[in-house]
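Sat 14:20. Reprocessing the chain from the morning session after the first attempt stalled halfway. Input below, unchanged.
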Amino acid sequence: MLTVEEALEQILSRIRVLGTEGVELSSALGRTLAERIVSRREIPPWPNSSMDGYAVRAADSGNVELAVVGRVAAGALPSRAIGAGEAMRIFTGAPIPDGADAVVPQEDVDAAGDRVTLHQRVTAGAFVRPAGEDVRVGDVVLEPGRSIGAADIGVLATLGYARVLVVRRPRVAILSTGNELADLGTEPGPGQIPNTNTYSLMAQVREVGGEPINLGVAPDRLDAIEERLRAGATADVLVSSAGVSVGEADLVRDAMTKLGAELHLWRVSMRPGKPITFGSISGRPVFGLPGNPVSAMVTFELFVRPALLKMSGRQHLHRPRVKARALARIENPGARRGYLRVTLVRDGAGLGARLTGEQGSAILRSMILADGLAVLEGDTTVEHGQFVEVIVLREVAG
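Finished this time. Tokens:
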């Protein structure tokens, strides 16, 4: 069996970044930027006031009375320059008139008609935002490979980008297999269980920014599995769950082979999720995940998620890892590395970790409660108070 690291290396070495597409800026949130953004403008384009007040010459300030010779609001231009002994009423964001080099906040002066009295000296540049304070022409503002956030959207709008080039979202076809599965909208018959994996895996695809395609449920027949996989062959990635172990009904690898797949790996030394298959069909990645719900979700996290992120052009492919104190004993019996579901608690001493409860690979509630996956080598016990490495699945409050 391969180690997790060996399997992941084999997978990522065969993943290529998808092509690009232009999208409206309003649709770019969460997409992967595919172009270097170089400023075409100075932001702000001219010196402007950061306060409501009076634009003055610093040399004229002190305990002095000045003549108010105009008024400039945001969105307007000053009517003229100011000279010695003069001031101009100004509002936040308005351009500084020629001749002025400082702003005195309105609460620091006494105003009466067309005269204003200052009570202290101000320095040149006080409450003035200089031209280009934020961005100058030619500045590299954003690099490719970053997930576009709300602040990025604001900067792109400021720089005049109505459209932006992004990496295309991966289209991921999801297939569940098994005679025992009853899909949504049907009542499970005798010996059947509800289809879980299709919907949890589709949600994981959406969470990582992909577009899931539901191939439904295929019974444990080679022709049926092959037919469903063929229907998803136009997707960028194929992901199936169940049917990849060694039983008589485990037919997914055979179906992949009949479709011309080259199988690169099978079985990884981990729990949950030892039976995992990865291959390629006409250059498209295809994953065969285990059938137990927790095994499917954990193997998606460790292998499919980084592959989709790389395919999406991201630079950072992995969840953050932290050291947490065990709040109770955490045990991983058996030779395979364990990825155990834990809740995380933040306190004055840092992060604490506790198992979510029973760790069976069919106990989906363990994933509902999990803030992270504690990583323990085989036959390892972490006692209360000792530290354990945890892959963080969601932000911990506090």
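The two ends are 40 Å apart (CA to CA).
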